[in-house]
Amino acid sequence: xxxxxxxxxxxxxxxxxxxxxxxxxxxxxxxxxxxxxxxxxxxxxxxxxxxxxxxxxxxxxxxxxxxxxxxxxxxxxxxxxxxxxxxxxxxxxxxxxxxxxxxxxxxxxxxxxxxxx
Length: 117
Known about the structure:
single chain, mainly alpha, about 45% helix, about 0% strand
């Protein structure tokens, strides 16, 4: 997308299992720590790129926060995967598009799912 990124984080073990296996080690990172690290790495690489290419630019790279949602079933996972895959084709319907011309069917479904949980 022109102004944002989507992703799915898959956690392979519960925190309790991770702690038991890593006795004495620090606990598994939180989602906030993972996202923070990802954002930091991206900014550092961008700064390196603009310095190496002598690009004079000043801009905000990331928004202050991020949006998260816990995927609870296969149906939701498949819908979200499909949404991410085809999202660039629906830019005209995206709520982040200042020239939006309609509402995305996934967004309607997702709002309904949030109300159910």
